[in-house]
Amino acid sequence: MSTIAKPQGASATAGSLPTWTVLTQATLMTGLAGFVDAVGYTAMGHLYLSFMSGNSTQFGMAVAGHDTFVVGWAGAVIASFVLGAFLGTLVYVAASRIKMTLVLACEFVCFAAAWSLQGLLATNIALLFVSVAMGMQNAIHEAIAGASTGKSFVTGALFGVGDALARACLGRTRFAEAGANAVSWLAFIVGVTCGALTVGSLGVSLAILLAAGVLLVLLTLSFL
What's the topology of domain 20-222? Predict the structure, then answer.
């Protein structure tokens, strides 16, 4: 799991409530992950672009079933995600005050590449750039009220709800931590719903374009 990162210019510790900017950034990042997962699920034969647990399950099932097509594409998506995590972490660690902005800018470039190549190459190949972007995003997920949010996977968020509720009952944390994890999960669900509706009615290209627009909003917020 990526190191929990605090966003520049904002306080997001367990002892203080997050600013609206930090909360908006984390919610949009998680929603974006759900959105592109729906796009990948629809366009890549039930593979995901950010949910690597699901892809790993598909990979293992395909190996057992000798389905070389799914093995190849699931492996390609997983490798793309790992590459993105590698590049995103390099940028985040090497950069200074604008590390979050630089990583988001790299994500935007990946989405732009996916959109540009979607009509030139097979959709599966173009969408690998989106998976690279999702790997990058995990380098900059944020801590809100003690909860790690903004990631492209939400199993931890669901566990975090139960874990934080238990610790809050024991007086060891605030109920706000459970709330932050719950918001993260809900943001993912909303993102998946919007992604499914968008790709179903507008197609893959416009869905990628809309996701890139969300990244532009995130880029803008990173300057605040």
Answer: Growth Hormone; Chain: A; (1.20.1250)
Q: H helices of the chain, where?
A: 20-43, 52-64, 68-94, 99-117, 123-137, 155-169, 175-202, 204-222
pTM: 0.86
Distances (CA, A) of 72 to 42, 76, 224: 18, 6, 42
| Half-sphere exposure for 91 (CA within 13 Å, toward CB) | 23
Q: What is the pLDDT along the chain (224 residues), one digit of tens a residue?
A: 333 333 343 334 434 445 677 888 888 999 999 999 999 999 999 999 999 999 999 999 999 999 999 999 999 999 999 999 999 999 988 877 788 899 999 999 999 999 999 889 999 999 999 999 999 998 886 544 445 555 666 888 899 899 999 999 999 988 988 998 899 899 999 999 999 999 999 999 999 999 999 999 999 988 87
Whole-angstrom Cα Rg for the chain: 17
Instruction: Give burial (CB, 10 Å; 0-12/13-18/19+) of 158.
Output: middle
Q: Taking the domains of the chain in order of start, what are their residue ranges?
A: 20-222
